[in-house]
Amino acid sequence: MKTLGEFIVEKQADYPNAKGELTGILSSIRLVAKVIHRDINKAGLTNNIIGNAGSENVQGETQMKLDIFAHETFKKALMAREDVAGFASEEEENFIAFDTQRGRNAKYVILTDPLDGSSNIDVNVAVGTIFSIYRRVSPIGTPVTLEDFLQPGHRQVAAGYVVYGSSTMLVYTTGNGVNGFTYDPSLGVFCLSHENIQIPQTGKIYSINEGQYLKFPMGVKKYIKYCQEEDKATNRPYTSRYIGSLVSDFHRNMLKGGIYIYPSATNYPNGKLRLLYEGNPMAFLAEQAGGLASDGFRRILDIQPTELHQRIPLFIGSKQMVEKTQDFMQQFSGE
Ligand code: P6P
């Protein structure tokens, strides 16, 4: 049994000039995952941390108490080690520069959705934490700038998620494949349980909120009907699974194959999900596992961000399934 800590140190040896900062960041994330795991698993017992906080985030979405708790936990863990120069979160309008001497001299910035799918907590459905790490582009020794966060996804140095489900798992990549670690609360360690995850090239599961069907572009409507047609040669009709939690739907598709789609819609002209701390990290993981992520036309990782919280349509999962959606989007574009 190999622990996450042993794995990180072992892999650091692959980067001779590494000074351990990325290792330090991953250790902070490991701690954050343990703390959030602990409190999510008590959510039903201690009412002071479930339900909404009576506030809204930058997107105008109601913040759940655990959203804010997860965000504050992440911020404190990063500030304690100062291995990052800056931090951006779904729960905070602007990025945070760690403007101390150690912070200014740090090489990396991190972006996170501290608790994705949090509206599901009160009904005991799995939720997740998503993170994305870049090397800063502004000069070392100065406070970070917005430019450090608005980098295309192909420049990520690491990305991952924690899924707080029937078990808590941390899944991440540093650009050399994807590995999954399952948390053993009795020992307080994450153990390597899913080495070198490879997403099947095709699958039988599609995840989309079909209740919004009438609002979707024609290409998406045509693809949904394609999934439902009878065709044994291509294993159709597919199975529809939609948990309402990106991390959970994506994690299942990573292991079993499948596609998750949150397209543009008349009520979400640019989609609902955010490019920087949902689309990009999941796209990095998908491609590292042999899958693909697109906005329906372009590779997610090639998109040049313009705003910290910008939204993006997301088609992500098994490579052949994402490519099929791109064919439909191309064929029916403009309809
Ligand atoms: P809808 C959760 O709010 C989230 O960002 C994803 O985790 C999830 O897949 C999606 O939104 C659900 O959105 O509009 O289908 O309820």
3D structure, described in words:
The protein has 335 residues and is α+β, with helices and mostly antiparallel strands. The protein has two domains: 4-194, Fructose-1,6-Bisphosphatase, Chain A, domain 1 (2-Layer Sandwich); 205-331, D-Maltodextrin-Binding Protein, domain 2, CATH 3.40.190. 30% of the residues lie in helices and 23% in strands. The chain has eight helices and 15 strands. It has helices at 4-12, 21-40, 65-81, 101-104, 218-228, 246-256, 275-288, 319-331; strands spanning 52-56, 62-64, 84-89, 96-97, 108-116, 127-135, 156-164, 168-173, 178-184, 189-194, 205-207, 239-240, 259-262, 292-294, 314-317. The strands form three sheets. An eight-stranded mixed beta sheet has the order 4-3-5-6-7-8-9-10, with helices on both faces. It has a five-stranded mixed beta sheet with strand order 12-11-13-15-14, with helices on both faces. A hairpin with a 4-residue loop joins strand 9 and strand 10. Helix 1 runs antiparallel to helix 2 and helix 2 (21-40) packs antiparallel against helix 3 (65-81). The longest helix has 20 residues, at 21-40. It is globular and about 60 Å long. The structure holds 6-O-phosphono-alpha-D-fructofuranose. 6-O-phosphono-alpha-D-fructofuranose (P6P) is lined by residues 116-117, 209, 244-246, 272-273. 6-O-phosphono-alpha-D-fructofuranose (P6P) binds at residues 116-117, 209, 244-246, 272-273. One of its GO terms (biological process) is fructose metabolic process. This is Fructose-1,6-bisphosphatase class 1.
